[in-house]
Amino acid sequence: MKTASAVRAHHVPTAEPARQAFLLLRTVFTVAPILFGLDKFTNILTDWSVYLAPQATAIVPLAPQVFMYVVGVVEIIAGIAVAVRPKFGSLLVAAWLAGIIVNLLLLGSFYDVALRDFGLLVGALALNRLSIRPGTARA
């Protein structure tokens, strides 16, 4: 016969781990895009224009560094969107990461970064699924 404490020890509320996962993903997908976006203006972490495929500047005729300024602004907006509206912001980040992946594949190098960004895209989609409020999900 199980005691009440043994029953409680085996019962883990499923909402709590999901809430923790949501908060972890929301924090990362808020902070990282904002920091990476700000770095597009300083190039402290890396020279971001190295990651830009020539096809991008052929479509949008801007100098690579100016293009990166635009990218930085979009990334900052995406991070803020995740903080304020995680269900929408997570999709914005996922779409943005898809664009980055396509850019890297067109560049023909940095496949390792493209694969990493694919993992981040999946994480952003997981955040989107965790952002659905209980009782509002539809089968």
SS element count, helices:
6
Q: Tally the structural domains.
A: 1
Instruction: Note the main sheet.
Output: none
Helix/strand-derived category reads mainly alpha
On the 0 to 100 scale, the average pLDDT is 89
Question: How many beta-strand segments?
Answer: 0
Low-confidence stretches: 135-139
Mind explaining what this structure looks like?
The chain has 139 residues and is an all-alpha fold. It has one domain (15-130). Helix content is 75%, strand content 0%. It starts with a helix and ends in a 9-residue tail after the last helix.
Offer a quick outline of the entry.
The chain is mainly alpha-helical and 139 residues long.
Please write out the topology:
Blueprint: H1 4-10, H2 15-42, H3 54-59, H4 64-84, H5 86-107, H6 111-130
Helix pairs in contact: 2-4, 2-6, 4-5, 5-6
Question: Which tags fit this structure?
Answer:
139 residues, mainly alpha, 75% helix, elongated, disordered C terminus
